[in-house]
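task queued by scheduler; priority normal; single chain, no ligands, no partner chains; default sampling; output format set to structure tokens
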Amino acid sequence: MKSAVIPQVRVAPQPRAELEAVLQEGATLSGFVEASVPAEAVLAKLQAELEARRRRLDR
């Protein structure tokens, strides 16, 4: 699969500063976002599966 560009994300100065304060040495905001996208996709899939399982049990 070809790589794709994720749209820029505008963030208020305070959350950005908080994130930059905890990044490991040499880490970048871009790298953080790049790693976060697939992790959030996995989490969303797991949450959807859990919700589907809950609905089946509620029947």
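post-processing summary
- Residues 29-59 form one domain.
- The first helix runs from residue 13 to 22.
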